Please model this.
Amino acid sequence: MKKYDAVVIGAGTGGLSAALSLAVAGKKTLLIEKHNVPGGCGTSIVRGRFEFDLSLHEYCGIGEPGNWGPAGKLLNEKYGLKVQWLPAPEMYRCVSVTRSGKRIDMTMPTGIENCIHAIEEAVPGSEASIRKFFALAQECREASEYFDEHLDKYTKDDFVKVDDLYFMTHFPNFLKVAEKPFTTVMREIGVPEDAIDIMSPYWLYLSDDLDHMSFVMYAWMFLMYCDLKPSTCRYKSFGITAEFVKRFEELGGEVWLNTKANRVVANDEGRIIGVDTTEGFVETNYVIANLNPYFAYTQLLDKKIDLPMREVKRVNASKPAVSFVNVYLGLNKSPEELGIHDYSMFVPPAYDSAKCKELAGTWEGNTNATFVCYNLADPKASPEGTTTMTFTIPVTEPYWGAVNDREYTKKKEEAFGMVLDAFEKQTGIKIRDSIEEIEIATPWTFANYLNTPNGVIYGYELNDWDTMISRMIAMKKDQPIRGFKTVGAAGARGDGYSQTHLNGNDMAQLVLQEMAEEEEK
Model:
């Protein structure tokens, strides 16, 4: 068997990014994947004459040439991927009832000024406070970029090292809100409750309700979508996956599909010496696993490798995020014929995110869903005169954990039936009679293919004590095994395509640092 500088296990979004980052640095890298196609969630399925993207709604933080966001800069400039980005025409349309009892049906546009004016129109008297929000969100964005620039500098305790005086001088408000929930901060700066509500639908993309999710994380994401526009891409998410593989192989990387990693092997001193795979033993001293940390530690690591107790406690303390029922629909009419004018739509039973999360654990009243019509960003997403769309329904373990094998099919159809009834009633858009193809994926589906707790896609909850910033500060400390790192949605930056790609690059940089330290000895 050949010896590799590094082996990446799992060709999901995080694994692809980690492998390509190592290849860009000139390291001889092997990427192995147990399935017959790479991509993880970043792939598609075909049913009849329709191709459905399994999970991609939209990228956050792509931007455009001359104004790339964090993900755009990584994918386009550092990695050199040739992707045709397709910006969505708006942030989202939301239809529901606020906590004050007011029904609001509005479209949130992109562009900060456009967004401010739209919120003011929906909630008169909110403009001044929304300007405060965007100013604070911009400070959070700049503070986050400062952390990004210092991820190669650490204290002796392995925390990110920053210039405390510079940070306090330039980001004084950030320090005041860093650990506070989004709703708390919004009230402190005087944002009306109805305005908070209509800005809340994106909570579904981050895993926790806004009474618990950190202000920094949600404000950062809202600003990214508003300022840089949501983006999807030509050829769906598998088009990006294919570009990753193509670029990786151009740089000398090797990809082994249909290959399972059985064990990360260590010598008697606990030092990694290779990976035992279904294709034989592969020699390496550095491994990155695109796997949930719990399974990576319990199923993959050699028992000779010491796992610090702090890491055991961290993983056990982290709470799995929400799961989803995903419904893929191919309709035999065009969006125009169906009266669909919005790419992304949220139609929750209420704007109250805490209430919606509570309902996600029950069978009664869980009509919350994100709706995406791909044709409005990419007219070629489906055959002419047809429509491809998805409904994404958040569920938590109490909701789906009680479902048994016999009632599985019936229950997933019931789950979508309730959501479809509510959607058609709230929006006036009738799609039931136009359904030509339908496929429903559940937490069981994702658990089977992704090997994640409860079938979660989003890793761990980002809440008021486990925030993106606290994770980034402790990024190196939370990856304590020399020569072994984990990537994926459970990483420091949280979930989503953009964040997972960034996390893959982060872990590759930690490995490169360890390689450099070893070479200096």
Summary: DSSP finds 19 helices and 21 strands in the chain. The longest helix spans residues 497-520.
